[in-house]
Amino acid sequence: MEWMYMHMPISGVDILWPGLVLIGFSVGCIGGFFGMGGAWMVTPGLNILGFPMAFAIGTDIAHMAGKSMISTMRHAKFGNVDYKLGIAMIVGTMIGIEAGAQLIMYLERLGTVGPVVRWVYVVLLAMIAWLVFYDYAKAVRSDKQAVKDGGKATGQGGINWAPALHKIKIPPMMEFKQAGITCSLWLPFVVAIFTGVLAGFLGIGGGLIRMPALVYLIGAPTHVAVGTDLFEVMISGLYGAFTYSLKGRIEMVAVFVMLTGAAIGAQIGVVATKYAKGYGIRILFGCAVLCCLVSVVLKEFKFNDLAAVVVLSSIGIISLYIIKIMVGGAINEVREKKAGAAQAAAH
Questions:
Q1: Residue 2 CB contacts under 8 Å (≥ 6 apart), including other chains
Q2: What is the mean pLDDT of each successive set of 10 residues along the chain, which is 347 residues long?
Q3: Which of 51, 58, 46, 47 is nearest to 11 (CA)?
Q4: Is 0.90 topped by the overall pTM?
Q5: Which residue of 155, 157, 197, 253 sits 20 to 30 Å from the alpha carbon of 99, by its own alpha carbon?
C-alpha cells in the first residue's frame, strides 16, 4: 500500500494522499455551504493524518485561501456577498491573525503547541455547538407559541443580540445594504480582531466563529453571512498563507492535492445554499461542529486511528447530505418551471 502514501518534502512526513483528496472535496463542499474555509476541520484532520501541528495550521491556511476564492465568486452570483461589510473587517482581521501566529510560534518553541491548540479547539467547538442548538430550540419554542396564539411560525424567534448592539451609536455609523443593516463600524471591527486571533492561532479563517457572529451579533441574514464570511476568509487566508510561508510552515504539495478536490466540492456547497433554509444550514453546521469536537478529543487521548475515522467519515456523510440538498432542490426547481410553463401554455 506504499503507493497510497505521498512524501511531504518540507515537513518530512509520509501522508495518505486519498485522505488529502477526501478532506479537500468534503471541506470544499462543507465550506461553500456553511460560508467558511472549513479549516476548523482541516487542521485537526491534517494533524490526525500525520502533519506536525504547526505544519497542519500553515498548510490549511494556504489551502483555505484558494478554496474560499472559488466559493466567494460563486456566492457573488447569487447576491450573497456584502463586500462593504467584508472590507470593513479586513484591518481587524489582519491584526488578529499576526497576533495569533506569533503566539503559535511562541508555543512551538515551548514544545506545547499541539495539546494547547487541541484543547482550545475543544472549548471553542463546544461553545459554538451549544449556541447553535440553543438558538434552534429557542426558535422552535417561539414558533410553537406563535401557532398556539393563532399566528404563524416564522423561524425568527431564536437568539438575536444584534438589535441591542445596533443601539451602540459610536461614530462612524455605516449602512451595509446587501446585509440590510446599519451599525457602528466598531462592531464588525471588534468581531474581526477576535476572529483574526483565532485564524492565526488555530489555523482557521475565523469563519468558525465569524459566520455565527455575523448572524447573532451583527444581524446579517444567514445566506448573506455565508457569502460575506467566505469573502473575509479568502482575504484572511491569503494574508495567513503569506505570514506562515515566511515561517516555513506550509507544505505546498498537500495544498495542491487538497485543492483538486476542493475546486469541485466548493461549487456543490455554494449551489446547495440556494435550496436550504436558514435554520437548516445552522443545524447541519452544529452537527459538523460536534463531529469535529469528538475527533479532537479522541486525538488528545491517543485514539489516533479512531479520530481519523470519525473526522473523515463525518465530513464525508455531511458532504453527501449537502449533495442531496443540491440535487433535490434542482429537481424541484426544474419540476416547478415545467409546471409553470404548462400552465402558461394552457392559458
A1: none
A2: 76 78 81 65 74 79 74 79 86 81 84 79 81 78 74 60 82 85 87 80 65 81 81 77 78 80 82 75 76 77 76 80 87 85 75
A3: 51
A4: no
A5: 253
